[in-house]
Design a protein that fits this description.
23 helices; 5-stranded mixed sheet; single chain; transmembrane; 2 domains; mainly alpha; 5 strands; 5% strand; 565 residues; membrane; globular
Length: 565
Amino acid sequence: MTAAVEVAPPVAADPPAPSMHRRRRNVVWPFTFFAIFFVLYALVGYFLFRTGYVNPDASARVGNAGYTMMSRYPHLGAVGFVWNPLPSFVEIPLFKLTYWNSFIRSTGYVGAIQSALFMAGAVFQIRGIALDRQVSTLARWIAIAAFAFHPMIVFYGGCGMSEGAELFLLLWACRHLLRWLRTSAPINLVMCGVALALCYLTRIEATVALAATGMLVFAVSVVRNRPAWGWRGGTQLGIHDAVVVSFLPLFAIVTWALSSWLLVGSLFDSYTSQYGNAAQVAASGIGTLTQAVGLEGTTRNIAAQLLGMQPLIVVVLAMVLTRAVRKRCIDVLAPLAMFGGILVFQIYAIYTAATFGWFRFFMTAIPLAVVALLVTTTPGPPQSRPARVHTRRSPVWLVPMLALVLITSVPSAWAAMMNPAIGKEEFGVRAVIWPDRYSKAEHWAFWGGELSRNTAAWFDNQNLPDGSVLVDTFSLAKTWLASNHPKQFTIRSDYDFFDKVNSPLDSGVHYLLVPKPTGLGKLDAINLRYPTMWSDGAGLATLALSVVNPQGFEQFRIYKINGAD
């Protein structure tokens, strides 16, 4: 007699749970990584602001944040609609720090904290993309260094402007777009849309990235779904995916436009208002300068800026595109759409004299080169550990090319920044590094802040009542920030600003602060209302003080209203 014995089928053992030490490391190390770069960029910002380098664009954004809390009529709409608001929104809670240290507000260092936070986040996203692609550990760290230690990244990580926020959000969007290209998971389209929506609230160039991304998603979705659903079904699914990625950015565009229309009467204030981009470019005479330089000169200027920013960009794109065609891999289209689209737009805008053409406008070439190289690696199984030096899923030239990008971009970008013909906003820093060879007086980012602080101190010493100094803070935000009594100023966001512009004596105005009516000074509301104010006081006021730059040229004047106490 034979007994039957039941044997249970083999059961796969559960994978061992990660140790408490490893779980803690997975949380602590990313935070530490972010904190290291935040501190680095914040210290760079402290150095810049302590030595007196303050870019007016950074001051304008910090001022917009301050007006919402410390003006005579604090309200959220005081953030304004000329500059996209996200950096200023981030700076609003940081103004609480000014209760402990007035330096943070008076110099605009609040802006440096904002830009350091975002730029550290951008470095974190580079690390994330490298981990997603499962490149070797060596390649990952070289890629991080090629981005994080690029001189323009370091500089704009601390100078208080919006480049850090723009690059962080574009990299975040690009990371999720790359994930969608590999997995088709809709959540990645949603997250890409979230990042692009926030990017639009940072810089208007995000509309270019949105358009390029929407077209890419549509095309890829149609081609993917055509075999199963035919051209009609594939097109419908392509439209669906394009709507998913575009919905939140379009919602942000429409919501911000309607808010602008309700509060200031203009749908797109950053484009069409008296302070908008078109008005600023026209007032600065960019079109005349572009015509004088000519097509050849403009082309040389663009080439100098692009190759100064990233000298190997053409070589990198050629190698990456060649490999993409050979491997039939479309992943490289993600960084091309996200960063390359903005780069092409900036070049077009320079040719058509629609922009100032600052060197920083070419900064998207930095992540374009780094991310394009990273996506040449095909990700492996999710649980596979990255190799230390080289993985077979990467081209043999990945690490050497990343190293070359790092080695060449640092000296070339630094040389371009120190060249007044290219780094028009950055070259002033050489006066701090080589004070025996260059003077701070040669660059407006230094003496502009000193003039503003001296002017604010002069007003503070007058012991004036609230609202008695009328000033259009579009170009004079530094003076308001430097004052210990900001409520003595009636500023552009105050509800009674135009009443006081029209009837200064009857509305309690004692002084007018007006910029020289040239360049951006032409856009000043007081200069527009009283075209002869600068020359003769418009019959309303008498010159009380002239504020002169180190070269001996007047920058702005203080007029005392006739008949004011």
